[in-house]
């Protein structure tokens, strides 16, 4: 429970991305924003941990960095810049369903009906929150939002399949992915957007928040939880991001919420809790069977030891 609550802080922090992007950052520079968010944090972690990948982990870290950081960040900010009202959040809410679908071919885990129900509740709840005010969604923004959700969902499942190299800390593992993702984003930002002409103190503060809190701290918590939590449980925690985005818009930006939107928030939270309850129930069901094995073996050994004595008396 402590690990789950700590991991949940990551999507809660990511919920502030939409407000920071619209209020503090220069407009029309999604690739630059993504690169500034990823590369400095990754290089800092590499300098602190002084640990580089070895063997097959060079390409595995590159793949995970591309999915979890490079592609996800770029598509996230394209959606955040082009879609009004935090609609990028509802597109990201499809992630638990994508993870459930990928878990069967990649992990051999069949999603339960309860998992699918929780995913549909989450998607429906977030949709009620953010879709009411959007009349004509931008096609490119919608495609970017769905692509970002698919990229991170694939990264979650592959990260669970491959695990983490033995002896490598979570900080070092996080640094690998942030660096690979940042190295992918930086050239793309220079080619397609160029160097920004002028940055205000507000812009700099927004970039510092994204790099330090929203990325460095949040992804360390996320990857630490990802090493222990099942992929479906991890993906359901991502539903907290759009809920936090709606709450920040309501409290800090003065955006009003209708009764139907408030009901959507409750549905999304219900989907998150239901997804976690499914994981807890599964673990509890598995624990007694494991704990009974030593008792069964002890009983068998006792019977086996007593059988020669019975034969001797006869």
What brief labels describe this structure?
mainly alpha
Summarize the structure in short.
By secondary structure, the protein is mainly α.
- Determine the N-to-C terminus distance: 57 Å
Main β sheet profile: none
Beta strands, count: 0
Helix content: over 70%
Number of separate helices: 13
Strand content: under 5%
Mean pLDDT: 81
Q: What class would the helix/strand composition place it in?
A: mainly alpha
Order of helices and strands: HHHHHHHHHHHHH
What does this structure look like?
With 314 residues, the chain is mainly α. The protein has one domain (2-313). It is 80% helix and 0% strand. It has 13 helices and no strands. The longest helix has 55 residues, at 259-313. The protein is globular and about 50 Å long. Mean pLDDT is 81; it is low at 283-314.
Write the layout of secondary structure elements.
Layout: H1 2-14, H2 17-23, H3 30-49, H4 57-82, H5 87-92, H6 95-107, H7 113-130, H8 139-162, H9 170-192, H10 201-226, H11 231-237, H12 240-251, H13 259-313
Helix pairs in contact: 1-10, 1-12, 3-4, 3-9, 3-10, 4-8, 4-9, 6-7, 6-8, 6-11, 7-13, 9-10, 11-13
């Amino acid at each position: 429970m402590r690990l789950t609550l700590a991991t949940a802080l990551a999507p809660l922090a990511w919920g502030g991305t939409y407000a920071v992007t619209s209020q503090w950052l220069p407009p029309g520079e999604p690739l630059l924003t993504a690169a500034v968010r990823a590369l400095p944090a990754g290089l800092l972690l590499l300098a602190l941990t002084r640990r580089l990948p070895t063997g097959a982990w060079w390409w595995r870290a590159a793949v995970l960095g591309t999915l979890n950081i490079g592609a996800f960040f770029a598509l996230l900010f394209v959606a955040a810049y082009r879609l009004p009202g935090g609609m990028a959040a509802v597109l990201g809410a499809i992630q638990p369903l994508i993870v459930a679908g990928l878990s069967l071919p990649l992990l051999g885990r069949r999603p339960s009906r309860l998992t699918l129900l929780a995913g549909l509740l989450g998607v429906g709840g977030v949709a009620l929150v953010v879709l009411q005010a959007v009349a004509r969604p931008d096609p490119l923004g919608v495609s970017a939002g769905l692509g970002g959700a698919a990229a991170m969902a694939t990264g979650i499942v592959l990260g669970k399949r491959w695990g983490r190299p033995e002896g490598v800390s979570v900080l070092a593992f996080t640094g690998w992915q942030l660096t690979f993702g940042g190295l992918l984003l930086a050239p793309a930002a220079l080619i397609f957007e160029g160097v920004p002409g002028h940055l205000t103190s507000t812009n700099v503060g927004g970039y510092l928040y994204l790099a330090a809190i929203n990325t460095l701290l949040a992804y360390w918590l996320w990857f630490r939880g990802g090493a222990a939590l099942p992929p479906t449980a991890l993906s359901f925690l991502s539903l907290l991001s759009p809920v936090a985005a709606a709450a920040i818009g309501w409290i800090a930006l003065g955006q009003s919420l209708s009764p139907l939107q408030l009901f959507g928030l409750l549905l999304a939270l219900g989907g998150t809790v239901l997804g976690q309850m499914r994981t807890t129930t599964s673990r509890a069901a598995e624990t007694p069977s494991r704990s009974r094995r030593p008792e069964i073996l002890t009983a068998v050994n006792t019977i086996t030891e007593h059988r020669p004595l019975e034969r001797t008396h006869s």
